[in-house]
Structures are given as structure tokens and as C-alpha cells.
């Protein structure tokens, strides 16, 4: 399958630049598989399509303020940095723009959210074949502890922002209401439409809810450059599926209920866990007489 087969035109005027005032007022497209019938609904109608036999699986990863602004310590040239992967304390793989100016040995000084120069500096110590840089940070015990002061929410490139007037709104809305585990550089977007009252309504109807954690990584931003989909290298992402969630999934399967993964991140966790072979020993039954 060729990558070009996935190309399509999406007019810019159809890309929402701001969320709807109420999360659960977003649109919901419902496809009835048995008949092929399509309905256009609002997201707050979701409970009508689930039953007390179903299990909802949510990704509770929390987006960190992973986008940083910086200046070249020598030339004053500007950089935009996206934190990708922590190797060790103050040692991160990042994406930098413009990358060509971020050569090994380049020293940069970070700015805070108001555009004021901070005491935190970094040095480019390595590059990889994909154009990512490895930075060593100085001037702080741990750069993660400074992100609330220095970092911005890493909105997708198709959402345009000028200045900092929407920063507070973006920090709240580009985060699910059930986010608990920090580590993602992009939101698990399918979960953004849930509200706490909607989750409570689902529970009151008997729908079980459980959580997995998958931290969205650089693969979200990495373009597919190969002509063939099969030749594209997928990036690894860290996930966790706890015992309580595993038990709920198994119970739902035993009672023939539906397991509803909210978004591709939760789905990837379930697919990966189901595909793994685990060592063990048990009695096996046969239906042969």
C-alpha cells in the first residue's frame, strides 16, 4: 500500500481553531454496523449507545507543557523546542526548529511563557538520523520541574496561535478531564469530549469505566516519508495496563459485553496486550468427544 493513497484535501476553513464552549457538545458520528445507517449526534448522547454490559477504556495520560522557546546564546537566533523523550535527569531527545542551526555544541537559553530570558540553558550534544537533537539542560535540578513556568502546551501544527492570550484556555482544554499520569507530548484527543457529569451518567447507567496509560510520543508528529506504508518506521510508546483494568476487561469478555476503546491510544494498548504471549501453566479443556 502506497502512502499517497492516504492523501486527501482538507480545507483550512473546516479545521476548528478553538474547541466548542462545552466539551460534550462536540459532534458525534454514529455508524450502525448491522444496517450501515449513519446518524449525526452530539457527544453528550453517547450514553444512549452504550449498555450496562459494556466497558469503556480511557487513556489517563496527561499532556506536559513540552513546547519551549529559546535563543541561541551567541547569535540571538530563535529556536522552538519540543521535548520528546527523557533519557535521564536534564537529558532529553527533542525536536528543534530550525534544526539546521542547532548543530552539536550549540548553546541556547530558554525563555519563560512571557518571553523573558530565564536562567535555564541547554547544549546540543548529539543528533540522530531523523534530525532529532539530544539536549543537556543546565541551571535547574530537573527541567521537568520548570515546565509549568517555561513550557507551552504542544498544540498540533494545524492549530494556529499568535501571542499568549489563549495559553490558559489551551492548558485546560487540550487535556482530558480524567488525565492523571504526566508524560504525553500530545493529547489522546478522542477523550477530550468527555465531561465529569457525562462520565457520572455513564456510571449511573451501569457502564463500567477503566483506565490504561499510553504516553503519546514523537510518532504523532513524525511525517511518513516512505513511499510504502510498510517501510515506515513506527515509534515506540510507553504504556501501562494495571491489574484492575485487566480484571474488568476479562470480566466483560466473559459476560459477552462490549469493550469500547476511546481513541486509537487506548486501542493500541489493548491490541498490544492481547498480542503478547505470556508464559504459564494451566489445565486445558477440549471440546472433542
Describe the structure.
The structure is a single chain. With 289 residues, the protein is α+β, with helices and mostly antiparallel strands. It has 2 domains: 23-63 and 173-275, QueA-like; 67-150, QueA-like (Thrombin, subunit H), CATH 2.40.10. It has 5 helices and 14 strands. It has helices spanning 147-150, 167-173, 196-204, 243-254, 263-275; strands spanning 27-31, 38-42, 55-59, 61-63, 67-72, 78-88, 91-97, 107-111, 117-127, 133-138, 181-184, 208-214, 239-240, 259-261.
Pick out its properties.
28% strand; Thrombin, subunit H; four-stranded mixed beta sheet; 5 helices; 289 residues
Shape, per Cα inertia axes: globular
Main sheet properties? 6 strands, antiparallel, barrel
> Helical proportion?
10-25%
Instruction: Return residue spans where pLDDT drops below 50 for at least 5 consecutive residues.
Output: 284-289
Return Rg in Å.
Answer: 22 Å
Total strand count, please?
A: 14
| CATH hierarchy, class of the largest domain | Alpha Beta
Which strand-content bin applies to the residues? 25-35%
Structural class designation: alpha+beta
Placed side by side, the strands forming the largest sheet appear as 5-6-7-10-9-8
The name CATH uses for the topology of the largest domain is QueA-like
Order of helices and strands: EEEEEEEEEEHHEHEEHEH
Please name the fourth-level CATH homologous superfamily of the largest domain. QueA-like
Tell me the number of helical segments per DSSP (H or I, 4 or more residues long).
Answer: 5
Amino acid at each position: 500500500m502506497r502512502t499517497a493513497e492516504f492523501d486527501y484535501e482538507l480545507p483550512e476553513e473546516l479545521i476548528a481553531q478553538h474547541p466548542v464552549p462545552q466539551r460534550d457538545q462536540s459532534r458525534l458520528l454514529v455508524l450502525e454496523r448491522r444496517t450501515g445507517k449513519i446518524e449525526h449526534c452530539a457527544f453528550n448522547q453517547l450514553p444512549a449507545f452504550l449498555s450496562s454490559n459494556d466497558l469503556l477504556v480511557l487513556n489517563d495520560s496527561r499532556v506536559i507543557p513540552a513546547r519551549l522557546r529559546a535563543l541561541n546564546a551567541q547569535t540571538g537566533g530563535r529556536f522552538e523546542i519540543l521535548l520528546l523523550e527523557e533519557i535521564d535527569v536534564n537529558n532529553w531527545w527533542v525536536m528543534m526548529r530550525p534544526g539546521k542551526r542547532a548543530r552539536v555544541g550549540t548553546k541556547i537559553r530558554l525563555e519563560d511563557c512571557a518571553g523573558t530570558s530565564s536562567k535555564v540553558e541547554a547544549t546540543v550534544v548529539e543528533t540522530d538520523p531523523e534530525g532529532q537533537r539530544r539536549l543537556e539542560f543546565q541551571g535547574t535540578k530537573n527541567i521537568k520541574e520548570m515546565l509549568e513556568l517555561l513550557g507551552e502546551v504542544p498544540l498540533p501544527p494545524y492549530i494556529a496561535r499568535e501571542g499568549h492570550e489563549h495559553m490558559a484556555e489551551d492548558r485546560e482544554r487540550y487535556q482530558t478531564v480524567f488525565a492523571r499520569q504526566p508524560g504525553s507530548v500530545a493529547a489522546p484527543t478522542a477523550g477530550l469530549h468527555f465531561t465529569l457529569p457525562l462520565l457520572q451518567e455513564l456510571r449511573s447507567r451501569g457502564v463500567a469505566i477503566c483506565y490504561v496509560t499510553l504516553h503519546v510520543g514523537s510518532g504523532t508528529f513524525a511525517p511518513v516519508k516512505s513511499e510504502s506504508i510498510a517501510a515506515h518506521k513506527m515509534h515506540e510508546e510507553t504504556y501501562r495496563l494495571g491489574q484492575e483494568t485487566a480484571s474488568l476487561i476479562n470480566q466483560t469478555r466473559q459476560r459477552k459485553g462490549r469493550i469500547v476503546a476511546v481513541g486509537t491510544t487506548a486501542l493500541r494498548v489493548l491490541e498490544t496486550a492481547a498480542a503478547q504471549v505470556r508464559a504459564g501453566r494451566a489445565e486445558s479443556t477440549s471440546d472433542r468427544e
